[in-house]
Amino acid sequence: CLERIKTINDGLSKEDASLFYYLLGLTHQQFGNMENAYQAIKKACQFNETSLQAHNLLADLSLKMEKLPEAISSLEHILYFDPNNAEVLYHLFQVHRISGNLNKARDVAEILSKQSTPYNAPLAEFAYNIFDPNFAFQFIHNSNTLSFSNIEELRNYCLKAELWLEEGKVEEAKQLAKAL
Question: How many CA atoms lie within 13 A of 107 on its CB side?
Fold first, then answer.
């Protein structure tokens, strides 16, 4: 089988070889062969360093296999090409949090605090519990819509009101409560 792959590989362009290994990795993943999937996706990334899709899957597989340094490397590689990708930033935040590197988690959270993303509520809760209410407020402050399409948004506003009360901003908290 490996000889056939080498023969196929020799006749392919780098992009086609990357796609071949990416699809091979997906197939291994679907059958639960995580190590083989990981190795194939790693090859896909080597053939096409700009394939964000392959690097994203490599990060995902690395996380599942508890290869945290590899996951961080893949996520940072994606951010090199797409520095404001909120989903990737959030995953990088999670990896740093899981690995116990709270300073790096905070650094990534700081970047995310300047964006309005679906991750603001869990980040605000983490920031509130681990760091301080003022840092948590940055996430809530960027979520400035009053339409509650889900319970998460309502939770954002409750946390926002709580933070305002703790900071002595009673009038703002009252106005927010009236708007609800």
Answer: 7
Residue 128, C-beta contacts closer than 8 angstroms, at least 6 positions apart: 135, 136, 159, 163
Rg for the chain (alpha carbons), in Å? Answer: 21
pLDDT tens-digit readout, 108-119: 888 887 777 777
Under the banding of pLDDT at 50, 70 and 90, the label for residue 102 is confident
Predicted model pTM = 0.65
Residues with Cβ within 8 Å of 131's Cβ and at least 6 positions away in sequence, in order, are 106
Among the listed residues 81, 151, 161, 85, the one whose alpha carbon sits nearest the alpha carbon of residue 128 = 161
| Amino acid letter, 22 | Y
Residue given tokens 């933070």 in the structure block: 163
Give the residue, 127 or 42, on which the prediction is more confident: 42
**Among 149, 148, 157, 151, which Cα is nearest to 175's?**
157
**Number of Cα atoms under 13 Å in the Cβ half of residue 96:** 19
Residue 102: CB atoms within 10 Å: 14
Residue 178 pLDDT greater than 70, yes or no: no
Element (H, E) at 31: none
Q: What size, in residues, is the chain?
A: 180
